[in-house]
């Protein structure tokens, strides 16, 4: 890249980092071109994208976007680093990465920022195993409604007993 292209690239990357709901750094070493294309396709389905970025350019863009300094450490920005940026959903791209890593044994999750909070690789692995947002909302709704279902069942049971007693008394 020429110097002018690098400056333009860093400015664009800075804007993406500022508006992203989640940013995850991965080590994509060992990922074939075909596998990369498959991963990019899956990420695109959830409104995320994977960018292969030079570590120095990522560091500049991250500093300009005021990304968490834990991400920009030299130990993390070493080797083959790709950036996964989630624009719509913060968790879905991490779940895709986790599933993909189980299937292909690559990429390796390095670190990330999800909804403004720094996450190390262990946290990212835990997040990747969470159910989807819709499933979690359904579970919460079920927990909230279960007491009312129990109450309705109890009241219906008593009503049925009353009707049974009245029928048995009326038939005599």
TrEMBL record:
Gene Ontology CC, one term: ribonucleoprotein complex
Recorded GO MF terms: large ribosomal subunit rRNA binding
Keywords, comma-separated and alphabetical: Ribonucleoprotein, Ribosomal protein, RNA-binding, rRNA-binding
UniProt xrefs under Pfam families: Ribosomal_L10 (PF00466)
InterPro entries: Ribosomal_uL10, Ribosomal_uL10-like_sf, Ribosomal_uL10_bac, Ribosomal_uL10_bac_type
Single GO biological process annotation from the record: translation
Role: Forms part of the ribosomal stalk, playing a central role in the interaction of the ribosome with GTP-bound translation factors.
Alphabetical list of PANTHER family matching this protein: 39S RIBOSOMAL PROTEIN L10, MITOCHONDRIAL (PTHR11560)
Quaternary structure (record): Part of the ribosomal stalk of the 50S ribosomal subunit. The N-terminus interacts with L11 and the large rRNA to form the base of the stalk. The C-terminus forms an elongated spine to which L12 dimers bind in a sequential fashion forming a multimeric L10(L12)X complex.
Family statement: Belongs to the universal ribosomal protein uL10 family.
Entry protein name: Large ribosomal subunit protein uL10
Originating organism: Candidatus Woesebacteria bacterium RBG_13_46_13
């Amino acid at each position: 890249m020429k110097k002018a292209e690098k400056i333009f690239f860093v400015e664009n990357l800075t804007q993406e980092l500022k508006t992203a709901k989640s940013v995850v750094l991965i080590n994509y070493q060992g990922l074939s071109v075909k596998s990369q294309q498959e991963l990019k396709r899956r990420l695109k389905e959830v409104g995320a994208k994977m960018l292969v970025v030079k570590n120095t350019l990522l560091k500049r863009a991250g500093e300009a976007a005021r990304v968490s300094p834990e991400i920009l450490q030299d130990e993390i920005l070493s080797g083959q680093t790709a950036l996964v940026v989630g624009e719509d959903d913060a968790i879905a791209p991490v779940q895709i990465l986790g599933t993909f890593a189980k299937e292909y044994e690559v990429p390796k999750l390095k670190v990330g920022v999800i909804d403004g909070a720094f996450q190390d690789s262990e946290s990212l692995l835990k997040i990747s195993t969470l159910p989807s947002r819709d499933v979690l909302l359904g579970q919460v709704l079920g927990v909230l409604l279960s007491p009312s279902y129990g109450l309705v069942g109890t009241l219906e049971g008593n009503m049925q007993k009353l009707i049974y007693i009245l029928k048995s008394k009326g038939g005599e």
